[in-house]
Design brief:
The protein has 33 helices and eight strands. With 837 residues, it is mostly helical. The protein folds into five domains: 64 residues, no CATH class; 348 residues, Na+/H+ antiporter like fold, CATH 1.20.1530; 108 residues, no CATH class; 47 residues; 123 residues, Jelly Rolls, CATH 2.60.120.10. Strand 4 and strand 5 form a beta hairpin. It is found in: Cell membrane. InterPro entries: Cation/H_exchanger_CPA1, Cation/H_exchanger_TM, cNMP-bd_dom, cNMP-bd_dom_sf, RmlC-like_jellyroll.
């Protein structure tokens, strides 16, 4: 085939891709539908010109189009890894993890339900073997959410809903292709009635093997990329190789799912990459992958559509009936998932409540696309699949895909409008009015400065200022006098605006490198939760999201248990250091929000709402300060090291800004500027590195600073330090149960506990101890002790405590004070202890 002609055809396809997006916007149709229509027209036109005698001039072009190397392996090994890898890189995984249960259940269970529904429906209505029917079910079970997600974004649907749909689609691609591989094996072996239990039993093995392969490949790639951190092009090149090597390694070497391997590799790089790679390199890497995925997605769609006329070339009347069966069975499976399973997940509180209208839109937006066509093409190319099965698989998969694209895709916006989802809710309308009012106030200030700078005519300025002032006054009045809004809605609007400004401030600090790339995603996720919480739950939702941003999660509890019970401190060290940095970043951001409330919020929503928001902000600042102070007490000196690092990074940012300004003013040339920037980059690499947190060392320092042990010499403290075992407890955890045996004494290194005994309550904080009374009285515990804050306790066994009590007068005084508080004679207690010794 003429290479020039093939190159011309491929270049022309890129022109088609470039024209498809504006055409889709003009026609208000999904982009994938336009690509499919153009691909079908090109393929049908090529066949028409080859079979007609109208002209022979276009025959070479038609032959080049039909002779393109469009094979299933091209889709599966070239395009599919690109699409899946970019999708995982573009995800906000911290937010996805909030909904991992509904995403996983909807993705995996939906694929299995759709496969079984379509497979058994075809088995009952056709002469095809069950294995072939289940194979068709697996092929048509994967969905393309691009159309419905893009429309949801345009109508301001809840972001959480869009995230669940995106996560479901990514994982159901992987699950469907894994099932496809299973049933394809049965068909090629000639197994007419496969054991469903055996097939589903092998399914987890494929997934686990693929996930492990992808994780290992990504960890190796990240290690290599970290070595080349200063060479941006090298980093991007390694990232391009990663998904393909993971896919081929899983498929060819391990015998697992290559799709799962690509997804696992992308997720691993997404989680670990921002903390190991330079921020600008990471941002550019994602931009490159966005472009690659755009091209790959468009090419896979248009090239697959070129095959549709050929796949439908041998259609028969009976095939149309089977296409109808596939359509009904697939829709029925989707209905079961959306209207039975999703409400059940909501009932058990693992999935958000999804409005019925949104579920209808998701149902009608379940389009199938290039992945379905690529899998069908893989069947038609196999020499081990019987000819009749190949023909039917190609026709049914293609027919069903055409139905979803041409019927559902073209009517999706109409359905959205019929459901009323394209109309803003009252609170969204009020929010839009608020945005207009705030924007116009900013514009007025900027225009005033501009007119002063350029000394424009006073008459013109006065005339335009009057017109602009009238519009501004009307906008502010509309924002203030929304009669259809309750007070709680006004507060919610203010909180949404405040959370939005917080997110913008975070982005500014990330660009300035005041906040490190390691923390950027987490603080942005916290800001997104604040926005969603305010939108869905108003003041209460905002408060829950704010408390969650500083709470100790389950991961922290697990890390503490690993450290205290197994001596594995790495997870706890990393999470504690992350918490230090997160709290410092939050404190930095929150202190900048007061001016926004006193400025724009007060002007739009009035004094009462502004005062309430200031109160909520003060509480958040106090909570963050308290949490940060707890960490300072627990690990003295580490917060200061982080603050020094922050100052150094800020100084480097300001230094870089000065160099750029001198370069723009012509004070220094390009060579000098590049030399200065290179030196600055080298120093910045050192400033970006976070100081190491040594838990063992910090515990030793803590013991030395403990007030109850102040009169012990250094030798005694060194012998005592290893004997004090740390124990980490979260708020609400029970430390000592009533009537339990007295075996140890607890010293509070940080945090606070509450003791309850005989109807009385005591609270103890840092530097105090508890549990000593039961040991000295040789009786079971009479008090129940519960942590009222995340706390670090140091435990000492009974024998060492008794020896320590004889050495330390300060400790004996503490015992006397504790005994007096509880109405116990301290001298008699210590006298008994001396006699015991």
């Amino acid at each position: 085939m003429d290479i020039v002609l093939v190159t011309t055809v491929i270049a022309s396809l890129f022109l088609v891709i470039g024209a498809a997006e504006p055409l889709a916007a003009r026609l208000r149709l999904p982009y994938s539908v336009i690509l499919a229509v153009l691909g079908i027209l090109i393929g049908a036109g090529a066949i028409f010109f080859l079979r007609t005698n109208l002209t022979d001039a276009l025959n070479p072009v038609a032959e080049a189009i039909l002779g393109l190397p469009i094979r299933s392996n091209v889709f599966l090994y070239v395009f599919l890894p690109t699409l899946l890898f970019q999708a995982t890189l573009g995800m906000n995984l911290r937010r996805m993890l909030d909904d991992w249960v509904p995403i996983l259940v909807l993705a995996v269970v939906a694929v299995v339900v759709a496969t079984l529904s379509v497979g058994y429906a075809l088995s009952w209505t056709s002469a095809l073997p069950l294995a072939a029917c289940l194979l068709i079910g697996a092929i048509v079970s994967t969905t393309d959410p691009s159309a419905v997600v893009s429309i949801f974004r345009s109508i301001s649907a809840p972001r959480r809903l869009a995230r669940i749909i995106e996560g479901e689609s990514l994982l159901n691609d992987a699950a469907a292709i894994a099932l496809f591989g299973l049933f394809m094996g049965f068909v090629m072996l000639g197994t007419s009635d496969p054991s469903l239990g055996d097939a589903l039993g092998r399914f987890p093995v494929l997934i686990a093997g693929g996930a492990l392969t992808g994780w290992v490949a990504a960890r190796i790639a990240i290690w290599i990329m970290a070595l080349f951190a200063r060479h941006e092009l090298a980093l991007i090149s390694i990232s391009v190789a990663l998904p393909y090597l993971a896919y081929i390694g899983a498929e060819q070497s391990v015998g697992a799912s290559g799709v799962i391997a690509v997804v696992a590799a992308g997720l691993t790089l997404n989680l670990a990459g921002p903390g190991r790679l330079p921020p600008q390199a990471w941002a550019n890497l994602r931009e490159v992958w966005n472009l690659l995925a755009h091209w790959a997605g468009a090419l896979i769609f248009i090239l697959a559509a070129l095959l549709i006329p050929r796949l439908l070339g041998e259609v028969r009347a009976g095939d149309l009936v089977l296409v109808g069966v596939v359509i009904l069975a697939a829709i029925a499976a989707r209905v079961a998932i959306l209207f039975v399973m999703l409400p059940l997940l909501t009932l058990v509180r693992v999935s958000p409540l999804v409005d019925t209208r949104y579920r209808v839109a998701i149902l009608w937006g379940g389009l199938r696309g290039a992945v379905t066509l690529a899998l069908a093409l893989a069947v038609t190319e196999s020499f081990l699949v019987p000819a009749e099965i190949k023909r039917v698989v190609g026709i049914l998969a293609t027919g069903f895909t055409l139905f979803t694209l041409m019927v559902q895709g073209t009517t999706l916006r109409t359905v959205i409008g019929w459901l009323g989802l394209d109309r803003l809710s009252p609170i969204d309308q009020a929010l839009s009015r608020q945005v207009v009012a705030v924007a116009l106030q900013t514009v007025r200030e900027d225009v005033a400065r501009t007119t002063e700078n350029y000394e424009l005519s006073h008459d013109i300025v006065r005339s335009e200022a009057k017109r602009f002032g009238e519009r501004l006054e009307a906008s502010v009045k509309m924002a203030e006098d929304s009669a259809d809004l309750l007070d709680r809605d006004r507060i919610a609007l203010g909180l949404i605006a405040l959370a939005g400004h917080e997110r913008d401030t975070i982005l500014d600090r990330v660009r300035e490198r005041t906040i490190s790339a390691r923390m950027a995603e987490q603080v942005l996720s916290d800001a997104d939760r604040l926005i969603e919480g305010a939108r869905t739950g108003g003041r209460n939702g905002y408060g829950r999201a704010a408390r969650r941003s500083v709470a100790y999660g389950r991961g922290f509890r697990a890390a503490g248990m690993l450290h205290s019970r197994l001596g594995w401190s790495a997870p706890l060290v990393r999470m504690t250091a992350d918490r230090f940095e997160l709290l410092l970043a939050q404190r930095l951001i929150l202190r900048d929000l007061g001016a926004f409330i006193d400025g724009r919020i007060r002007r739009i929503h009035g004094r009462r709402v502004a005062d309430l928001l200031q109160e909520l902000l003060s509480r958040r600042i106090e909570t963050v300060e308290t949490a940060l102070e707890g960490l300072r007490l627990q690990y003295p000196g580490y917060a200061e090291e982080l603050e020094r690092r922050f100052i150094r990074r800020t100084a480097l940012r300001l230094e870089e800004r000065e160099y750029a300004a001198m370069r723009e003013d012509g004070l220094i040339g390009a060579e000098v500027y590049m030399a200065l920037v290179e030196d600055l980059s080298a120093r910045r690499a050192g400033a970006e590195e976070r100081p190491r947190l040594d838990i063992a060392l910090q515990r030793s320092d803590l013991v030395r600073q403990f007030p109850l042990l102040a009169d012990l010499d250094d030798t005694a403290l060194e012998r005592l330090s290893p004997a004090l075992q740390p124990r980490y407890v979260n708020a609400g955890d029970i430390v000592i149960r009533r009537d339990s045996a007295a075996k140890s004494v607890f010293f509070i290194a940080s945090g606070a506990v509450e003791l309850q005994s005989a109807g009385q309550t005591w609270r103890l904080g840092r530097g105090e101890m508890f549990g000593q009374m039961a040991i000295l009285m040789q009786k079971p515990r009479r008090a129940e002790v519960r942590a009222i804050a995340p706390s670090t306790l140091l435990t000492l066994d009974e024998e060492r405590f008794r020896r320590l009590l004889h050495k330390s007068e300060t400790l004996r005084e503490a015992v006397r004070a504790s005994a007096k508080k509880r109405g116990i004679a301290p001298d008699a207690l210590l006298s008994d202890e001396r006699q015991r010794a």
